[in-house]
Specification:
The structure is a homodimer. By secondary structure, chain A is of the alpha+beta class. Chain A has 2 domains: 257 residues, L-amino peptidase D-ALA esterase/amidase, CATH 3.60.70.12; 121 residues, ArgJ beta chain, C-terminal domain (Ubiquitin-like (UB roll)). Chain A is 34% helix and 27% strand. Chain A is built from 11 helices and 14 strands. In chain A, strands 1, 2, 3, 4, 5, 6, 7 and 8 form an 8-stranded mixed β-sheet that branches. A 6-stranded mixed β-sheet of chain A has the order 12-11-10-13-9-14. In chain A, a hairpin with a 2-residue loop joins strand 5 and strand 6. In chain A, helix 2 runs parallel beside helix 3 and helix 7 crosses helix 9. Chain A is globular and about 70 Å long.
């Protein structure tokens, strides 16, 4: 992995959580306090680091992010909250930054206390490991059942200066045994006001991570962060400027790439499918229909079997709560029409074409529900035997 | 199967739909027009017989119910609507009853036209087959991928007279390839006003069939009917009388038994699990939490693996949209506490006890979310390899 982003250093070490000695503690540190925003899980049950970090990010600044994998520090009560506090305090001390500027994130088994002592002892080594080129180690240190690290980059110009965004995520498709925790981190060297960054992050997360159908379960630990160092030699980005639009687009592109990698990384998932809904009364309606189709077990098993089963797609759309006339519905698999204005139109030839599209690693299903202007999409993956194997056999 | 219910006759024949010559057409006929009520799928995409029957039941009377399996007559457009009309007209003619008093239901593949000609030709034989003891044949004629027929009975007294309810259903747990269609029929010889019967049916369906987590997909064809012949030598049941309460309880008991049979009949489902939620602010809140837990893929795969995974239960509760304090949550598997007031309490001993409870065919998981009076339940089953095999490999 080439280069980093100006103003940030990254690290990853083994801190004694994972039994196999793999990297399990990661750190992102900014040279100066960075402008920061975070989006956190909507689950009522929230892990200790989520509660701590949300509070600390209220000020819109952050200088370090301490992340561990292998243990979620969720459902761990007062002791878990104290552990999150102690670890961020220790990292702040070794980094020489205010404790209030250190946030944290955890992912892994829940209901088990962190092995605090070895983790505290690993912090000096973690800080030592920090380097401008350390993103690859950080990306590995935050993984749990992921097949591999997830990194995405984008560049854009502010005036004559090039600004960069580096995105790093973890999360495995539909099936992470530890409740599908998704963590995302986007670092940019652009300079931007905290309220603008926050709005951009909320918007981009809504259109990317929140459009990825994992298995419908929202983790206790989900979090997406954006940090802006302002270290590029570029002028500050004003709200509603052309530069702001470029940053927003680049941020969405990075998060979209990461979200797709998360969906595609479902253990056992063989297909990454974009469900696009058109012709709804509003975008919100279209997204709601796409979400219901993307989350349907019957649709997902049909995707696994490469079965162009328009009936299941239609039935899922029908129970989405969105009003439409079934006689106006059309469905395409890739470019192949399989259902047209309320009537199946598959011939032996189109069925075989549709089935061969469905064998691809990535493809799109388009569902038109009427003549409205509403449009929306959702990413999903197939539901196969591996899903059951991993999730039913996880603890036994 | 012993006996029927006064005032009704039942039949089942092969009408040329199923390739293997199995029974695929069923008929329920009342001697006189029966008081009738129906509850129909909320899916926007509704099969032709659903649309036809809902309209015909508006008057609160029905004398015959024509049911076929093997073909859902859904997404079949104008031709499908005409077929439903033709078939009920033919049945009415042979039975000698008004066409407006004949309702119909279908279940099976969707998007394929009914083989109308052989079905029309089979109607005289179907009417010939009618008998007071024919319920077993009817129960078989409406099955699709069910493991076997589903019948339930109850009795209650109105004054000195015994009244009966006979319930017959089809539907296979979480996984029916044809979108999990559930059909339910409850026949009683009690005498009751149509508006009272309707209220009772809506209430009982809400607490039984609508508390059974299939796979979250609502079929195009789901329907539950109640028919009252008034043929028992009992006085008419007045609303809010003791007899009305007895009938309501008996109806709920019959539908509950049928709904459990439907959930338990998931191909591959090995466990029937009642999720009970207590301590919510309202019953509606409790049901909502129970529904979210019951529908969670991660919970259902854990049930399959006999894994007392309170984390997944808690995470599902947390995203149900219902407010509660995680520190007040407790979870029991059967009688075994595994999570108590926000903290896991499993020891090696209780874990093994919980795991052995989870090996049972049927058990309960209780989730207390606070000190409120709200209580509610949901039936669910485990998600195993068979589910994937059947649903992914259905057409291929």
């Amino acid at each position: 992995m080439s280069g980093g982003v100006k103003g940030f250093r990254f690290a990853g070490v083994h801190g004694g959580i994972k039994k196999d000695g793999a990297l399990d503690m990661g750190l992102i540190a900014a040279e100066e306090p960075a402008t920061a925003a975070g989006v956190f899980t909507q689950n009522r049950v929230r892990a200790a680091p989520v509660v701590l970090s949300e509070r600390r990010l209220l000020g819109g600044s952050c200088q370090a992010l301490l992340v561990n994998s292998g243990n979620a520090n969720a459902c761990t009560g007062r002791a878990g909250r104290q552990a999150a506090l102690n670890l961020t305090r220790a990292a702040a001390a070794v980094l020489g930054v205010p404790q209030a500027l250190v946030a944290s994130a955890s992912t892994g088994v829940i209901g088990v206390q962190l092995p605090q002592q070895p983790m505290l002892e690993a912090i000096p080594a973690l800080v030592d490991d920090l380097s401008a080129n350390g993103a690859a180690r950080f990306a590995r240190a935050i993984l749990t059942t992921d097949r591999g690290p997830k990194v995405a980059r984008a560049e854009f110009k502010v005036g004559w200066s090039v600004c960069r965004i580096l995105g790093i995520a973890k999360g495995a498709g539909m099936i992470h045994p530890n409740m599908a925790t998704t963590l995302g981190f986007a670092m940019t060297d652009a300079s931007i006001h905290r309220s603008t960054l926050r709005r951009m992050l909320v918007h981009a997360t809504e259109r990317t991570f929140n459009r990825a159908s994992v298995d419908g379960d929202t983790s206790t630990n989900d979090a997406v962060y954006a940090l802006a160092s302002g270290a590029a030699a570029a002028r500050p980005i004003a709200e509603k400027s052309a530069a702001a639009r470029k940053l927003a687009a680049a941020l969405e592109e990075v998060l979209e790439t990461l979200a797709k990698k998360v969906v595609a990384d479902g253990e056992g998932a063989e297909h990454l499918v974009r469900i696009e809904v058109r012709g709804a009364k509003s975008d919100a309606d279209a997204v709601q229909v796409a979400r219901t189709i993307a989350g349907s077990q019957l649709v997902k098993t049909a995707l696994h079997g490469c079965d162009p089963n328009w009936g299941r797609i239609l039935a899922a759309a029908g129970r989405s709560g969105v009003g439409f006339n079934p006689d106006h519905v059309s469905v395409k698999i890739g470019a192949v029409p399989i259902f047209d204005h309320g009537v199946p139109v598959m011939t032996a030839k189109t069925e075989s074409k549709a089935a061969s599209t469905m064998k691809r690693r990535e493809y799109e299903i388009t569902v038109a529900v009427g003549k409205g202007r509403g449009i929306g999409h959702y990413w999903t993956c197939d539901l196969g035997h591996e899903y059951v194997r991993i999730n039913a056999d996880y603890r036994t």
